[in-house]
Each structure stands twice: as structure tokens, then as C-alpha cells.
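Key idea: predict the complex, not the pieces.
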Amino acid sequence: MKALLIGIGLLPLVRLIVLGYQDDLTANPIEFITRSTGTWALVFLCLTLAITPLRRLTGINQLIQYRRTLGLFVFFYACLHFSIWFWLDHSLIFSEMIIDVIKRPFITVGFISFVLLIPLALTSNQWAVKKLKRSWARLHQLIYLIAPLVILHYFWHKSGKNDYFTVSIYGAILLILLALRLRPRLKL
Amino acid sequence: QKLPAKVNPQFFVADKLTSYKDVTTYNNFYEFGTDKADPARNAHTLKTRPWTVSVEGLVNKPKVWDIDALLKLAPMEERIYRFRCVEGWSMVIPWIGYSLSHLIKASEPQGSAKYIEFISLADPKQMPGVNSRVLNWPYTEGLRLDEAMNPLALLTFGLYGEVLPNQNGAPIRINVPWKYGFKSAKSIVKIRITDKEPATSWKVSAPYEYGFYSNVNPEVNHPRWSQATERRIGAEGGMFAPKIKTLPFNGYAEQVAHLYKGMDLRKFY
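Result:
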């Protein structure tokens, strides 16, 4: 089952490779790949955050075992998203990348989101869970900060075209997923 | 549909041409949607005949031109221009048309005339994007009259030996190669000669990001990204080709820099 999930999770990458092979990545392949990997990181973020509410709604506790895989796919696509930008937009020149990060708020929040994902990915193993004990859960609450930052990143990206339709859908989904977590505490 | 034209060797760029496919499938033409692939998908609904262009305002000879009459106003030339989008990508395109100055001269601007305004079609029946409020429709662009009289400013009817595909601004658009692409209004229905700076669509929409002049300038960055380099679409080496340096006035400084003598181009961006 987990192997199947990994297979499915790799499909967006396979699609990009096939499109690339067929020379079908539009006139601006870099832009296309950057946007595609960014979108898929966001999709997997939504899926990851959907596990807990879904588990509560359906009572299927086994769902939890897929959360880590989904979370790692967030990091996987975020890594591709970041690497392509760092490599092809900044030719792997660290100083130039940092200037861009400082100068452009939309890049700043995207970069912070990526950096914050790193400790989460690094501690996504049994060993770290045991070692960190209670602070593991607290560390992984960072995702509640990452989610709105990612939406802000996307929102600012879209602001150039005043085109907020897609970003508001993702924003609404994440808002609902986060709001569902508040319910038990409010004792509704 | 073929559009015969004589190559004008005066306007020539040695760079490799951007492929016809890229030129016609990667477009910003918000009247047909904001995605770059939207215009090629949606612009088939645009009817380019009958088509008229009204030239009006401070001219002695205002006239509603039929598109077929405009096609015959001056000999068609093929010119290879660089095209630099404000978003940081560029193309090299063989356009067909003639200098905009021919039409301006035929209209006889009055002494008080200082600017020219281009107004694009905004018909929700033919243009699905007009229903969204991305910009104030109709799309409006403009130039100072002396800029418009520069021989580089091209009244454009075709590309790659053919009449303009709808998604590239058929049946008539302009090209101002030393300015960012959005200055080159598409599918024009009205040209107005005025004494006041026209309220251009992008400047109205985001005045801190887009100015009236919008000359290609590697030293004046867009507030959200650098303009120092550009990605040449379809460049040799494919997607891993490094970005290239953006040239002042998109490489046309020799022809147009004198128009801006004494002006602070950081202020008049």
C-alpha cells in the first residue's frame, strides 16, 4: 500500500520527464517545471494536512501511517521547486540567490517555507521520533506556520496578474483543514 | 494565409529566430485568458473581418480605416525584432508591417498633438478574458508622438510570412521593440492623437510597477524582479541555456536613446 502511494506520488515527476522527452514543456520549460513542482508541493501539503481530520471523521486510524510519506513528498517537490530556481534562475550562485531572497518578499516567504521544511524532513524517521520525544510533536507543528507562508508565497506570485482564483481555492482548503483541528478543543 | 513582404535589411537581428510554434503558443493576451497558453487555445473566436481602425483626435484627417485599406497604405516589410517581455523572457520575431509613421503622417496631426493612444478591441462575445477584471478594458496603450514617429515603431500585420495569428494580435497591432512587450497593443480598433498622456492599462492597474515609458532598461528593476537578465525562449542549449544580459533599450539605443535626452529614466520608468 505504501509502495503504491510512493508510485502515485512520483507520477507528477514522471509526467514532467515524459513531457520533457516529447519537447512538450511549453515555450518556457523552466517556468513550467518551476510552477508544476510548486503546485505539487502544495497539493501534497494539503493531502498531508488532510490525514488527521480524515482520520477523525472516518475513524480509520491506519491512515496515519501514510502521513509521513505524503509529508516527504511535500519536501521532495519543494526541493525540486527550489533547486530548479536556484540552478536555472541563479546559476547556483549563492550570493545572487540571497540577494533575490532579501529583495523580493514573494521569494522571501517561499524560501523561509522551504528552509522550515528541512528540519521536518530530517526528523521524519522513527529514530528522531524516539529521540526527540515530546519536542518532536512540537517541532512538527511548524507545518501550521509553513502552510500560511506557502499560501502567501503563491498569493504574491499571482498578484502580478490580479488572478487570485486558484490560490484562493488552495487557501480555502488549507483554512478548512486547519480549522477542523480546532474543533475538539472548542468542544463543539 | 500568406502576407507577402520585402525583407528590410535595415531592421535585422542576427540572433536565432524564436520558433513559429513558440511565438504563437506562448502569449500574454489577457483578453483571451491570463495563462500563456490561453490565447492560442481561445483566440479562434476573434473575427478579424470586417475590421476597422478609427484614427481620431487632434488630426486634420480623422478617418475610419478599413483593414484592407490599411494593408495597402505602405509597402509591407519584413523586420526581425527582439521582443522583451517585462516578465523577463524574450524572443526574436520576424514581423511584417510598415512604420507607424506612415499612418500618422496620413492623418496629419495638429500642432498641439503630443501623444498617441492605442485602444484594443474589448468584446466579451469574442474575448472570454474580458469578463474577468484583471485589467480595465479596453486595453489601452500609448506613446509620445515622437516615439511613435520613430521608424522602429512598427504597425504590424503579420509574422513569419503570414498574416498575424489571432493570438498574436490580429489583424493589426503595433510593435515598439525598445519597450517592454506590453506597450505593443494588439487587435487595435482605435488610435487617438491627444495632447495629454494616455491612461495606459498597466499603469492604471499598478502604477508602482509599470510606468508610461516602460523602456527596456537593465538598470531599473521591476519592484518584484530584476530586469538585468532575460531568458531567451527556445535558446540554443534548450532549457539549460544560461540567461542573457538585457541590453539598454533592448539593443536599440542607437536608434532611440536621443528621444530621452535629459530625462531621468529611473523616474520615468
